[in-house]
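Input:
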Amino acid sequence: MSATPATPRSDELCAVHEAMRLLQGKWTLQIVRALLDGPRGFNDLARAIGGCNPATLSRRLEALAALGVLSKRVDSTMPPRTCYTLTEAGEALQAVVAAIERWGDRYLPSAARS
Amino acid sequence: MSATPATPRSDELCAVHEAMRLLQGKWTLQIVRALLDGPRGFNDLARAIGGCNPATLSRRLEALAALGVLSKRVDSTMPPRTCYTLTEAGEALQAVVAAIERWGDRYLPSAARS
DNA sequence: TATAGCGCTTTGAAATGTCAAGCGCTTGAT
DNA sequence: ATCAAGCGCTTGACATTTCAAAGCGCTATA
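Output:
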């Protein structure tokens, strides 16, 4: 009944494996989720995802930008504001975020305390 | 500065946040994916997901069992074999895994070679 | 002038993950 | 009977990641 490939194959697994590793980075999903609501600046983003310190956030954003999930734009106006926006690939992660939201709502609404 | 609570206090967000944090544990998704093919023993599982050392795997399995994603069963036969199986909640994660697979296949097939 | 906001970076310490090795056990080959 | 090999882990030392706190240069507002 599993619709997944039964045998782990190196070729096909590679992309998936890479995707999993990417999404396993701490705060990655929260960042994407926050940006799904629209572009945000650095501190605004930090506040929106709640409790991520700037060092980690900075590194994560850099990594995500390098992978093409989001892009960083700096306004050259004079208070130079930064703006992080999801790319097409980043917005496509909405499906993943939605799946996680559905799962979380259903399977750990009450049990998530220990 | 004033009112920025260090503790997440919105109920609805909590489940989703918790789900994300859970899935962000290293090897978690790989473990679930491997178990979607059917129950496996410890070493078999380790080999299936490729490159996870026993210490981490052990800790992760314990955490996942505590959260009700999978269950551990020990056969009392005489080479006492262990068997890790997904619970209903665990199998429901298939939707998440599938979403990630689709995204990975589509958005990082060529870039992820290394 | 002072305060607060912006976008970060730097600093140790703490949590987390990794590697190598090994333990008790049993089975299968020599 | 002996030995290597597999099972399911645990341990202890080490590397990486994340943390909270503070601070920096800047500007706009009070």
